Amino acid sequence: MSEVSLRAAEKLLKKAGCKRISVEACKELQKVLEKKAVDLGKIAWKLTKHAKRRTVLADDVKLASETML
User: What angle (nearest 5°) sits at the alpha carbon of residue 45, between those of residues 39 and 29?
Assistant: First the structure.
């Protein structure tokens, strides 16, 4: 089961300007978002460990997202 709901995926696609959205498109977005979020979390955790901390901070997540671009 995905951490991102189908409804949330649909809302994000609509926010992006999509008018008609298939269930398959929402399911695919779920998969992509979950993978990207996990990858981002791994990078944020590495940054946290590098800073000799045990708590991931918002700055770690921000920096991790910048490195993913």
Answer: 20
Question: Rg of the chain's alpha carbons, rounded to an integer?
Answer: 15
Q: What is the pTM of this model?
A: 0.88
CA dihedral 21, 15, 4, 64 (to 10 degrees): 130
Residue written as tokens 């991931």?
56
CA 29 to CA 5: how far, in whole Å? 10
CATH topology of domain 6-67: Histone, subunit A (1.10.20)
DSSP classification of residue 27: H
Per-residue pLDDT reduced to its tens digit, 15-36? 999 999 999 999 999 999 999 9
Q: Which ranges in 1-69 belong to alpha helices (H)?
A: 6-15, 23-50, 58-67
55 Cβ contact partners less than 8 Å away, ≥ 6 residues apart:
48
